[in-house]
Amino acid sequence: MKSLSIYIHIPFCVRKCLYCDFLSFPVCENDIHRNSRRGCESYVNQPDTDGGSSYVNSNNTDADERMLGYVDSLCREISGWAPAYKEYHVLSIFFGGGTPTLLPKGAVSRIMTVIRESYRLADDIEITIEMNPETAEPDKLKEYITCGINRLSIGLQSADDDELRRIGRIHDYRTFLRAYQLAREAGFRNINIDLMAALPGQSVESYRHTLERAAALKPEHISAYSLILEEGTPMYERRQEFLFPTEDEDRDMYELTGEYLAACGYHRYEISNYARSVVSDADPAAGCGSAACASYNDPEPYECRHNKVYWQRGNYVGFGPGASSMVENVRWTNPSDMEQYRLYAGRAGAQSAAGAETPGHLPGPADAALSVQRLTVREQMEEVMFLGLRMMRGVDTERFEREFGQTVDSVYGEVIERLCAQGLLVREAAIPAGAGAFRPPGGMRLRLTKRGIDISNYVMAQFLFDETEG
Amino acid sequence: MAAIDQSKIRNFCIVAHIDHGKSTLADRIIEKTGLLTSREMQAQVLDNMELERERGITIKAQTVRIVYKAKDGNEYIFNLIDTPGHVDFNYEVSRALAACDGAILIVDAAQGIEAQTLANVYLALDHDLEVFPVINKIDLPSAEPERVKNEIEDVIGIEAQDAPLISAKNGTGIEEVLEAVVKKIPAPGGSPDNPLQALIFDSVYDSYKGVIVFCRIMEGRVSKGTPIRMMATGATAEVVEVGYFGPGQFIPCEGLSAGMVGYLTASIKNVKDTTVGDTVTNAVHPCAEPLPGYKKVNSMVYCGMYPADGAKYPDLRDALEKLKLNDASLNYEPETSIALGFGFRCGFLGLLHLEIIQERLEREYNLDLVTTAPGVIYKVHKTDGETVELTNPSNLPEASQIAYMEEPVVSAEIMVTTEFIGPIMQLCQERRGRYISTEYIEASRALIKYELPLNEIIYDFFDALKSRSRGYASFDYELKGYEQSKLVKLDILINHEEVDALSFIVHADSAYERGRRMCEKLKDEIPRHLFEIPIQAAVGGRIIARETVKAMRKDVLAKCYGGDITRKKKLLEKQKEGKKRMRQVGNVEIPQSAFMSVLKLDDK
Q1: Which of A68, B315, B488, B526 sits at 20 to 30 Å (Cα–Cα) from A4?
Q2: What whole-number distance in Å separates Cα of residue B542 and Cα of residue B488?
Q3: How far is Cα A239 from Cα A254, in angstroms, rounded to an integer?
Q4: Is B555's CB within 8 Å of A9's CB?
Q5: How far is the C-alpha of B253 from the C-alpha of B243, rounded, in Å?
Q6: Interface residues of chain A, partner chain B, Cβ below 8 Å
């Protein structure tokens, strides 16, 4: 049976962060213009004196209706495509955004129900939902656990309130702490904390402080990306107003992340992702036995399975506007315009209602609203390299050969040679001597060196073919 | 067609400073005489090229024949010759003027007389043209027509009290201008019975007809079948077609005779044979001598032009060939640069001419170009007595073989309001200028004369002039001759390798300053590499300035959104594409923009 991962996009945020160029709409925009900010702020979880939540959404019927309407479309799309994936086992699901936890109560369970009804889920499935601290609420967290979500990804970004304010985040560290505690209390045993480095006004010292605070909470996973100024974002437009750390400071922060987290028992498995290592069976977290722990066969259960699917080019299908999919070497992207998406989802749903099945095993992205790309063998090779190199384990050269019938050296020999000579790439046996016997024997792997990681863009670009060659 | 009464012909042009409304007035005249409705007119009919319209300047002379029914009841034939409006094209301007009998002088009612106005008026008066003034832009709130009238009388010494006050933009006063043309501009002289004597004032290449020669018939007549000879180039041909200029089109006719302006074609394959200023005569019954004023035009400014993509070299060659068909003043010959590969050393009349050719190559021929720093022609006198004309700094002989060098010097006239005399004189001094004189035109304005080395004004002198006078100064120059000068070749070394395309000749006293600025600029332009890159400036092997591009520490992509790999790949592709647009010198990749950025060292 083939495997599949599912991405669900929830394109709503309370407010858009200054640096964000993801597809997301501030839910309160209209309310702000029509009434006042009050309607918007009521979405934000305000901790009150007794530590409980004063989440009020009675003022937000408009926004709620908009979101529920969106969930309708989403459910249509999800069930519409189901027949095409009846041969697939779903290994992971990821609710990303936007802010998925902004959805009204019951909406996430409803989506999960639709998925369960129409897709075959693996026993040890990993299901993640992204949450921004200001939206944490015990009832919702309980709802997520109940419907099978076993991994929570919380966007802390920084433990320094000034830094948070500067990048347009609406939470502070205290709000985050509360959200984290609520999540643990609700029963989440696999939590990721998202951090950002190279923020305006951030120093290496203040970043170290953020790292310390995050690691002290012992989350199962930490991801730490450098802020990249993207064109078209408010931060880009106003870039003169910000004091960004230098390139050297950025790299110092990156090095610090690896060193500090390693000392705390995390290993870097992807350029910007760190998982708590399972050192022995005695590890209390590893032995939890709950659904939160991924497969028993997985030696590193806290590495995010869903993300690894992207880097290792597993099949995944994305639902929601602007969502990307890749199944059997066909990539496509959903329409990102909300209205276009609604119409498209309607067509997808009708397809299922009519019992129509697209020919073959592909979902048959024949809909004109989708932008579809069938990857050529050369494009597949490029992806294997530039995606695979993001993983610290690197690219499995034997797998490359099995997949394409040619050795990686016959295709990229010259590039590899040069990059190795430059100290950016290293070729080594996949399994270092003395590693656990339960791991399958591997062949050779190509991975980035420390220097290669710093300039990964440069290295990865070397694996693209010139158009004239292809 | 009824015979045209020579006394009812008016051949004239419009002279003005750039931006004073020359092309707009030409358009109004055409519109008013009913040739085109305003709807049919694309703004500024006479400026044909997209580039001309965009820059608001006329690059090639344009000519149009229109019929005007005057208040005296007669119909007049107007030949309006629109002249190029830039100092680079002074010779073309002079030939176009020679084809006219009179000129309308437009002066901006707010700006008054400018250096270029003066230069053009003197040029017109030199050609014995009847000049009458028109005050334009009277609709502007800052218009001061009375002051400008007095200025015209004081400075130029022509009667201006009854000058038509017009707004070409709004179409006000155009009728008055047309009447003045009839009354003030004389009918052309010459006799149709004399041997043919026609002045070439422009020519264009047409892929069907061959070269189309624009000419003014001074004496005699020409029609289909006339055997002709160009007196300077000696080319001979038989006329295939003659005609006159409708707006935007050629209208064939029976014949052209003395006093008329029109065109002829004769299956001529190259504009080289029909150079501007040459005299066309009857090959069988030639005139006694050619018209005066013919001059071979020489390129003043040279630079290397290279295709950004080396594979496009043949395309560049073809494009230059085609442009050359239409532009006798463009010169080029193949050259090779270690840094830039195969390209051409091209010669131009001036920097504007260079920019225009460059833009046309890029737009009309879709070429991506890298150009090297423009330079002038130096005369290198060698110890063995030989003199070399140097257009490419890389060809400079060994220092031991050089006795001395000479550089071209121009006589420049700068018109400026008195408050800016100080800053402008300072600028000229910085550019090694030799002060000649200051003449006060009126209480608030002066004409400053300087002799300046040409290589000091070809880069950014005009920009500097504008910025130091808040846009008020205007500038005109002509080549004076060659003078001995202390010149050196400045070389740029990147990662210890000399980049030939960045070398240039500079006066010894400014070498250090220029070298330092070059290094600073290049430091910003050259991206960080995997290793550290020293950038050095050297004169005769001695390093005079240095900067360092530090090794790259970081090059990473942002977080990816829900598996949007396509976007990631696009970013990588963009990076790789960027690399391709770089030039490899040794281990270093130099972006194309680096070669261009050093042309403008004066900004910031």
Answers
A1: A68
A2: 12
A3: 22
A4: no
A5: 5
A6: 7, 9, 22-23, 94, 96, 225-226, 228, 230, 247-248, 250-251, 254, 271-272, 309-310, 316, 318, 323-326, 331, 333, 373, 382-383, 386-387, 422, 424, 454-458, 460-461, 464, 466
Shortest CA distance to B405 belongs to which of B338, B484, B328? B484
Residue B504's beta-bridge partner residues? B490
Phi/psi at B39 (5° precision):
-70, -35
Report strand pairing: B497-498 vs B487-494: antiparallel
Cα–Cα distances in angstroms (integers) from residue A357 to residues A83, A361, A363, B414, in the given order? 6, 9, 9, 81
CA–CA separation, A318 and A4 (whole Å): 11
Which residues in chain B have Cβ-Cβ distances shorter than 8 Å to A373?
566
Count of other CB atoms within 10 angstroms of residue B100: 26
Q: Which amino acid is located at A205 in the chain?
A: E
Tokens of B380: 């290198």
Query: What integer is the mean pLDDT of A264-279?
Result: 91
Query: Cis omega before residue B85 (within 30°)?
Result: no
pLDDT in tens, B526-583: 988 888 999 999 998 899 999 999 988 888 876 666 678 888 888 888 877 777 667 7
Q: How far apart are CA B59 and CA B546, in angstroms?
A: 42
In terms of Cα–Cα distance, which of A320, A347, A324 is closest to A24? A320
Q: Which residue has the tokens 């010459």?
A: B190
pLDDT beyond 70 at B224: yes
Q: Report the SS3 class of residue A43.
A: coil
Name the pTM for this structure.
0.63
Chain B interface disruption, residue of A391, A420, A458, most B CBs within 10 A: A458
Q: Are A126 and A90 in contact (CB under 8 A)?
A: no
- Which residue in A272, A455, A468 has the most chain B C-beta atoms within 10 A of its own C-beta, making it the best mutation to test that interface? A455
Report residue B111's pLDDT band, with 50, 70 and 90 as the boundaries.
Answer: confident
Which tokens sit at B76? 């007049």
- Whole-number Å distance between alpha carbons of B583 and B219: 57
| Parallel, antiparallel or unpaired: strands B279-282 and B227-230 | antiparallel
Lowest mean per-residue pLDDT among A99-103, A161-165, B268-272, B290-294:
B268-272
Residue A26 in contact with residue A15, Cβ under 8 Å? Answer: yes
Distance, CA of B94 to chain centre: 14
3-state helix, strand, coil in chain A (%, to 5): 40, 20, 40
Asked if B556 lies within 8 A of A464 by C-beta distance, the reply is: no
